[in-house]
Amino acid sequence: MSPKSIPRTMVLRCYGYRTRAGSWIASCIDLTLMVERPSMQESIQALHEQIDLYLQSVQDIEDKEAISYLIPRLAPWRERLSYKLIAIVCHFERLCRESYFKFKEEHSISQPA
């Protein structure tokens, strides 16, 4: 992908789950980012902040052609499979609220100069 083909906005696929210890893990499969926090809301907020920091740092690099290798940065197939499985589980609303969540975020990406 050339720098000119980098989209202005990007919808990122994210999901999360409760661990056996009771904490929550949130993951973005399009940027290979993951956080763990005590609550679902805290994990979503922390992931959102991590996404913002990652996108800002990528946009600040000097080698603008490298951006196409960093956005998107797909997670390993196991993480992408987990996202798909959780998407299926989230069709059963009660299960989704108790142990899993799935969401999408839209982020603006500035174009290289």
Protein model, in words:
It is a single chain. This protein is an alpha+beta fold and 113 residues long. It has one domain (3-106). It is 39% helix and 26% strand. It has four helices and four strands. A four-stranded antiparallel sheet has the order 3-2-1-4, with helices on both faces. A hairpin with a 5-residue loop joins β1 (9-18) and β2 (24-28). The two termini are 16 Å apart. The model has no long low-confidence stretch (mean pLDDT 84).
Keyword list:
alpha+beta, 113 residues, single chain
Quote the distance from N terminus to C terminus: 16 Å
How many domains? The number is: 1
Shape: elongated
What topology, given as strand order, has the largest sheet? 3-2-1-4
Number of helices: 4
Work out the number of β strands.
4
The radius of gyration is 15 Å
Q: Strand portion, in percent? A: 25-35%
The major β-sheet equals: 4 strands, antiparallel
Layout of helices and strands:
Blueprint: E1 9-18, E2 24-28, E3 33-37, H1 40-59, H2 67-70, H3 77-89, H4 93-99, E4 100-108
Antiparallel strand pairs: 1-2, 1-4, 2-3
Q: Would you summarize the structure shown here?
A:
With 113 residues, the protein is an alpha+beta fold.
